[in-house]
Amino acid sequence: MELLFQNVWLVPFLPFSASILLGLNLFFFPRSVGKSRHICSFLSISFPTIAMIISFHTFWQQITGSPIHQFFLSWILSKTVILEIGYLIDPLTSIMLILVTTVGVTVMIYSESYMFHDQGYIRFFCYSSLSTASMLGLVLSPNLIQIYIFWELVGMCSYLSIGFWFTRPSAADACQKAFVTNRIGDFGLLLGILGFYWITGSFEFQQLSERVLKLLANNQISIVFINICAILLFPGPIAKSAQFPLHIWLPDATEGPTPISALIHAATMVAAGIFLVARMFPLFEMLPLVMGIISWVGAVTAVLGAGIAVTQKDLKKGLAYSTMSQLGYMILALGIGSYKAGLFHLITHAYSKALLFLGSGSVIHSLEPIVGYHPNNSQNMNLMGGLRKYMPITALTFSFGTLSPRGIPPFACFWSKDEILINSWLHFPFLGFVASFTAGLTAFYMFRIYLPTSEGNFRGHIFNRKYQDFSPVSIWGENKVSKKIEQEKKTFLNRSLTENLLYPKESDNNMLFALIILAIPTLSIGVIGEFFPQEQLDSDFLSNWLHLSVNSLQDIHSEKFTELLENAIPSITIAFIGILIAYSLYGSGFYGTIIFSKLKKFNFSIFVTKSFSLYDWSYNRGYIDELYNLLFVKTLRFYTNYLSLIDKWIIDGIVNGTGILTFFGGEALKYTEGGRVSSYLFFLVSCMFLSFPYSYII
């Protein structure tokens, strides 16, 4: 066992090694991409698989009673500063290791087929492996400095992955947007880390909490200053986990390949922010003001994300706003002190959302040959429908993914979301109302996503005839595809539509295998603790250390199964109300029509003035991007242009004017200097005579 703990560093090192090997192969043998695809995919899958096995073994050792393990190596030693690197193995770490490795391996298996014909195949696996390694390093970090290093690596990997198809302007803009937004949060995080180091003299989590508690108990530090430092820490998780107001990057992050979206939304980027808040929870718990801010930020994010998701036509963007809303639930739970429910929801949501994104990727992958490769077509739910008939396995697993966030038992998210709703009502009724209202919206938009994609008739042909912007566009930009090839594709597709209509078909076995694997925890992870042999476990393990017991039903709800379901009737009722409303708007009557016009026709005038449309507000993302563009981008450009004019005409004018005056003065004086002594004497005497009357007057 000791040998295992000493070698747990292999968990992040293995996917990092895979990334390095792939990068070296791409650098030294750039023309061998086609020949080395299978080798590269094997490395990308096998190395993280070994890391996953080690993670499972570590988790088993933890749940069978092994103590918390820490390992440190000295990094910087001086009289004033001591920095150490190492790793920390505790229940939170072991669970996060399993989450990241299982989702990471599943995404790699899926991507082997999804990305096979892409020009950047090896580069994709290089980025994905590095992203997984960075998140694993962050999870194992024992102090804030090491977390910050891996925090930035996770951000860098997300920047590279989102901009994977960088020749597409929208993808290039999206990765820059994510980068800039996260820099704002990371700057605050860095200030908070430095502030707590100034207070406590340590970066280690346990020492931070103990020393802050001691200082507060003895009134040796200002409570105001500690609150400021804690609030400065929070912008990092706000940006990383797409919380309001730094959430704007997450929907645009879907510009990257769909497997990357699954990785970001389930196991890496957004999970990092939740993990940091959970890791710092003992410190935040001492500061009621900070906990209040955390809870309200989570509540606003949850309802905002759900409110925007209800009108999105883009499949991946709808799922992105769903992620934003569910992340708000997690932050809300942590803010009200419901640590176990927040982390449980992180786990259940991760598998559900990975399944949803990979399912959407299967749909998009099947539609692209029919409607074109541009996201406006292949991700448009208006062009889908009837996929349950043509892609039964994808549709079934996708339905599992939508049932889970809706809060339908026995799917995973039901157990964690129900706990958050109960604790929200107990903590503060208005927060409970917000959480319950968001649960209804979640059930509505999730069913709204499922119905037009899987049920009814396939609508791709109808829209292809109506709109002429469906021609295939290369993901590498128009400059990479010759006009001749593009015209041949368009002619072939038009002939296919008139002679032999194309229909979606089921994805290949690798992609389906990944979907089925993710469907298992999505269906069963919430109830697995009910039938787990309790005599094999330390019953106090997660309830005492993590507050999230593997005996999830008893320890989370402290009730028997039937009593639990009885108490869950309100949340289930809310979910079914949302489903019924969605069915009434998008039920059997919408098939073959423009489905999303129905919600727009719904009369919202009883709630708002006629000059304002809730549909338009939601469809345009709450106009938040436009507001930020006005407040920051345009304002900054205005002041930049204004300062540029000042610099050009005033500052440069003074400098240039001085130079010009000196130049002309010199030009004038040079004619008075002929080199003759008699001329100098004449000039001197003349000046003396001219100054004589002035001297006489004085």
TrEMBL record:
<keyword id="KW-0521">NADP</keyword>
<keyword id="KW-0874">Quinone</keyword>
<feature type="transmembrane region" description="Helical">
    <location>
        <begin position="217"/>
        <end position="238"/>
    </location>
</feature>
<dbReference type="GO" id="GO:0003954">
    <property type="term" value="F:NADH dehydrogenase activity"/>
</dbReference>
<dbReference type="InterPro" id="IPR002128">
    <property type="entry name" value="NADH_UbQ_OxRdtase_chlpt_su5_C"/>
</dbReference>
<dbReference type="GO" id="GO:0042773">
    <property type="term" value="P:ATP synthesis coupled electron transport"/>
</dbReference>
<comment type="similarity">
    <text>Belongs to the complex I subunit 5 family.</text>
</comment>
<feature type="transmembrane region" description="Helical">
    <location>
        <begin position="187"/>
        <end position="205"/>
    </location>
</feature>
<feature type="transmembrane region" description="Helical">
    <location>
        <begin position="512"/>
        <end position="532"/>
    </location>
</feature>
<dbReference type="InterPro" id="IPR001516">
    <property type="entry name" value="Proton_antipo_N"/>
</dbReference>
<feature type="transmembrane region" description="Helical">
    <location>
        <begin position="289"/>
        <end position="309"/>
    </location>
</feature>
<keyword id="KW-1133">Transmembrane helix</keyword>
<dbReference type="GO" id="GO:0048038">
    <property type="term" value="F:quinone binding"/>
</dbReference>
<keyword id="KW-1278">Translocase</keyword>
<dbReference type="GO" id="GO:0008137">
    <property type="term" value="F:NADH dehydrogenase (ubiquinone) activity"/>
</dbReference>
<feature type="transmembrane region" description="Helical">
    <location>
        <begin position="258"/>
        <end position="277"/>
    </location>
</feature>
<dbReference type="InterPro" id="IPR018393">
    <property type="entry name" value="NADHpl_OxRdtase_5_subgr"/>
</dbReference>
<feature type="domain" description="NADH:ubiquinone/plastoquinone oxidoreductase chloroplast chain 5 C-terminal">
    <location>
        <begin position="498"/>
        <end position="646"/>
    </location>
</feature>
<protein>
    <recommendedName>
        <fullName>NAD(P)H-quinone oxidoreductase subunit 5, chloroplastic</fullName>
        <ecNumber>7.1.1.-</ecNumber>
    </recommendedName>
</protein>
<feature type="transmembrane region" description="Helical">
    <location>
        <begin position="147"/>
        <end position="167"/>
    </location>
</feature>
<feature type="transmembrane region" description="Helical">
    <location>
        <begin position="121"/>
        <end position="140"/>
    </location>
</feature>
<comment type="subunit">
    <text>NDH is composed of at least 16 different subunits, 5 of which are encoded in the nucleus.</text>
</comment>
<feature type="transmembrane region" description="Helical">
    <location>
        <begin position="329"/>
        <end position="347"/>
    </location>
</feature>
<feature type="transmembrane region" description="Helical">
    <location>
        <begin position="6"/>
        <end position="28"/>
    </location>
</feature>
<keyword id="KW-0618">Plastoquinone</keyword>
<comment type="function">
    <text>NDH shuttles electrons from NAD(P)H:plastoquinone, via FMN and iron-sulfur (Fe-S) centers, to quinones in the photosynthetic chain and possibly in a chloroplast respiratory chain. The immediate electron acceptor for the enzyme in this species is believed to be plastoquinone. Couples the redox reaction to proton translocation, and thus conserves the redox energy in a proton gradient.</text>
</comment>
<dbReference type="Pfam" id="PF00361">
    <property type="entry name" value="Proton_antipo_M"/>
</dbReference>
<feature type="transmembrane region" description="Helical">
    <location>
        <begin position="96"/>
        <end position="115"/>
    </location>
</feature>
<keyword id="KW-0813">Transport</keyword>
<keyword id="KW-0812">Transmembrane</keyword>
<dbReference type="InterPro" id="IPR003945">
    <property type="entry name" value="NU5C-like"/>
</dbReference>
<feature type="transmembrane region" description="Helical">
    <location>
        <begin position="40"/>
        <end position="60"/>
    </location>
</feature>
<feature type="transmembrane region" description="Helical">
    <location>
        <begin position="428"/>
        <end position="451"/>
    </location>
</feature>
<dbReference type="Pfam" id="PF00662">
    <property type="entry name" value="Proton_antipo_N"/>
</dbReference>
<keyword id="KW-0150">Chloroplast</keyword>
<keyword id="KW-0472">Membrane</keyword>
<keyword id="KW-0520">NAD</keyword>
<feature type="transmembrane region" description="Helical">
    <location>
        <begin position="572"/>
        <end position="596"/>
    </location>
</feature>
<feature type="transmembrane region" description="Helical">
    <location>
        <begin position="680"/>
        <end position="697"/>
    </location>
</feature>
<feature type="domain" description="NADH:quinone oxidoreductase/Mrp antiporter transmembrane">
    <location>
        <begin position="141"/>
        <end position="442"/>
    </location>
</feature>
<dbReference type="GO" id="GO:0015990">
    <property type="term" value="P:electron transport coupled proton transport"/>
</dbReference>
<keyword id="KW-0934">Plastid</keyword>
